[in-house]
Amino acid sequence: MRRFRPLTWLAIGFVKGWRALISPLYGDVCKYQPSCSTYGLRALQVHGVFRATPMIIWRILRCNPWSHGGYDPVPGTPEARQWRELHPETARSKNEPIHDLTDDNPRDHEPALRKSIPGYTDPGSTHTGTPSHTRGEN
To answer: Which portions of the sequence form the region Disordered?
Structure first.
């Protein structure tokens, strides 16, 4: 049985209020899937207010014009586990170093990793704009 957590419910109420009152003014501008508010609700429901708050803040900080966006499930959820199983190249352990493109490790030169480099344009791509080209007009 789940216990009543008043701070968590207060935070959930805040996010739902944001979605109802503020979010419609901006339209669909989130670069991530699920949207930042959906991510926040899911994090609060799964982890509670104390563990979810840093996750939500970090997610909001990442949602900026210089970010590529993409699928970003809440850590510790079945969706995140399934994503890691289907896409092991996106998971990083705490001890794994950041990829150094100056060494000759062939794993660093895989197409999926090259595309994650800011400013990288695939030679076969017709896109010449900024990474936020899929956001639409602001």
So the answer is: 71-138
Q: Contact at 8 Å (CB) between 54 and 118?
A: no
- Six-digit token pair at 95? 């001890």
**Model pTM above 0.90:** no
CA distances from 95 to 8, 61, 81, 92, 128 (A): 32, 24, 19, 8, 35
Chain centre to alpha carbon of residue 40: 11
Residue 84's pLDDT band (boundaries 50, 70, 90)? confident
Query: How many alpha carbons fall within 13 Å on the CB side of residue 98?
Result: 2
Cis peptide, bond prior to residue 34, ω within 30 of zero: yes
pLDDT (tens digit per residue) in 15-25: 999 999 988 88
- Residue 32's DSSP bridge partners are 70
Residues in the chain: 138
Check residue 69 and report its DSSP letter: -
Angstrom distance (rounded) from CA 20 to CA 24: 7
Q: Please check whether residue 59 lies inside any domain of the structure.
A: yes
Count how many Cα atoms sit within 13 Å of the Cα of residue 31 in the half-sphere of its side chain.
20
The number of folded domains in the chain is 1
